[in-house]
Amino acid sequence: MQKLSVRSVTKRFGELSVLDQFDLQVDDGEFVALLGPSGCGKSTLLRIIAGLERPDSGSVHIADKPVTDIAPERRNIALMFQSYALLPHMTVVENVRFPLRMRARYSRSEQLEKAREALDLVKLEHLAGRYPRQLSGGQQQRVALARSVVSEPNLLLLDEPLSNLDARLRETMQVELKRLHERLGLTTIFVTHDQEEALGLADRVILMNKGRIEQAGTPEEIYRRPRTVFAADFLGGANIVELEVVKSGRSWKGKFPDGTTVPLTNSPDLEAGPRSFVLRKEAITFQPVNSMAVINGSIETQNYLGGQTRSLVQACGVDLIVVTDSEKTEIGRRNTRIGWRVEELVPLEL
Amino acid sequence: MIAATPRWVMALATTFLVAVAAFMLVPLFVVVASSLSSSAFLVFPPPGLSFRWYGEILGSEAYLRAGWTSLKLAMVTVVLALALGTPAAIALSRFRFAGRATIASIFLSPLILPSLIFAIGLLIIFSRYATGPSFTGLVIGHTVITMPYVIRTVSANLADIDPNLDEAARVMGARWWQRYWLVILPQCKTGMAAGAFFAFNISFDDAVIALFMRAPSVETLPMRIYSTLEFSPDPSVAAVSSVMILMTMVLVVMLSRVFGLSKVV
């Protein structure tokens, strides 16, 4: 069953087109990330799904029912705001109970029971009687999360769920969100500008740019096989190399500016001429084996990152960033052999 | 420690501070001391101490009636100022509509305009279209001059709250009336308390509007004090004033106990 279907939704704010004929289908139980820079339309899309914003055209369906004209209070969804939006005058357990109370579902004692169960899920049952201002940021977020899942919503929407937390809490929360999703199986859509968050949490990443889908796919697909410069850049930055594609016999080769050629995988859309390729920083190794594409270069600088080393390598007339798990090698080494598995050099769309 | 501010500046500032405090507190002290006077005339320092003037005012029908009028007036004013000022503050802070800034300035104008002007206008209107000065006239006058305080304090409250609360409540299934009653109004509580405090004090203390709206049947406590002072000054005036000081202090303590003074003022 499709939990959410967004059909050619367009939204304009004055002259500015925020979403342009946007389509999105989400299956039951999926964990989807809407990823993109600020102004790409991801937050507006989330607000349209929640019903807080009305699309200019197009329609939204939740659990196979059209909801475009239905107010947010009747949609049976949950939205966790970036600021958590906890009600400051209510205790933790009253906050969590609020969605059940508003929908007059269950008796009062059952509502409290459910609220306590939801708090238990985020391990905060012992703070049920506190007020939000007495909690730390991480605890407030857990309360917001418990409040979002308590009503068993059709859709769980999260707006930048981790961006208000410090780096360490973010890691724990990431684990927790994943665990909660696995346990409850709620169809979850979250908005983020952080590629790590998107890759680490989602089953499917929708990369958005200027109100359109730039690329969508599993985290692995979108990270390893970016189709555009924008996608390659946004997902952690990668080496983008300009090569001249030439035919040699029955296979294709890529020619570096200095004339060195490397093998390319056969791809139906390859044609002779200049082409941009993406080569992930971790795909390059200093210990190439024979089946790899191998070139010679010199290491210009290195930075130790703790567990990883980042090197700037000049090779065949281009600069390449290489990230390896090894400790530092010598800087300034000439004639270092570097290589990558042939399929790691991915052609970008023309 | 190395002084960040030269000593003589600190000394000057301290002197200034003490002087200001003295100007604020000494008159209060004089009033309270005079009220304990055993003399039949309002003199300072009092020749001897006694509580006779407190007994005197508690037995004076004129004072008690004026006190009761003032108390009733202040309470009705508080209720009306809250009932009108709170929704006004909510509307001004939540909605963007044409003429919003103008309406906001009109609502706050009694803070700036001399209440004398307003009182004259009120008197003319009441004399022409109603039965002249009356309790209702006083209530209207006091509501107008105190409502801006409620609007100010409630607005300050509303400016502090998470702007997402209303939308979050919507998504959680709260209808519009549930959002007003369970989400927005509870956020205005401290502002309403502070506004009520100001409204009560201003109404109880007002002499300007009361002067114009005075009638034999409606005399407020400040007017009673004023006429006593004018025609037969005795320490009863100071005793009444001391009671008023005490009442204000009790109110402040109550408010700060419940809400925390820093939040309220």
Question: What layout of secondary structure does this protein have?
Answer:
The complex is a heterodimer of chains A (350) and B (265).
Chain A: E1 2-13, E2 16-27, E3 31-35, H1 42-50, E4 57-62, E5 65-66, E6 77-80, H2 92-102, H3 108-121, H4 137-149, E7 155-159, H5 167-184, E8 188-192, H6 195-201, E9 204-209, E10 212-217, H7 219-224, H8 229-234, E11 239-248, E12 251-255, E13 261-263, E14 273-279, E15 293-304, E16 309-315, E17 318-324, E18 336-340, E19 346-347
Parallel strand pairs in A: 3-8, 3-9, 6-7, 7-8
Antiparallel strand pairs in A: 1-2, 1-4, 4-5, 9-10, 11-12, 11-14, 12-13, 14-19, 15-16, 15-18, 16-17
Chain B: H1 7-35, H2 52-59, H3 61-94, H4 100-108, H5 115-129, H6 135-159, H7 165-171, H8 176-187, H9 189-205, H10 208-212, H11 221-231, H12 236-259, H13 261-264
Please provide a written account of the structure.
The complex is a heterodimer of chains A (350) and B (265). In chain A, helix 5 links the parallel strand 7 (155-159) and strand 8 (188-192). The mean pLDDT of chain A is 91. Helix content of chain A is 24%, strand content 35%. Chain A contains eight helices and 19 strands. In chain A, strands 6-7-8-3-9-10 form a six-stranded mixed sheet, with helices on both faces. Chain A has 350 residues and is an alpha+beta fold. Chain A is elongated, with a radius of gyration of 24 Å. Chain B is built from 13 helices and no strands. The longest helix of chain B is centred in the first third of the chain and has 34 residues, at 61-94. The interface between A and B is medium-sized, with 24 and 19 residues.
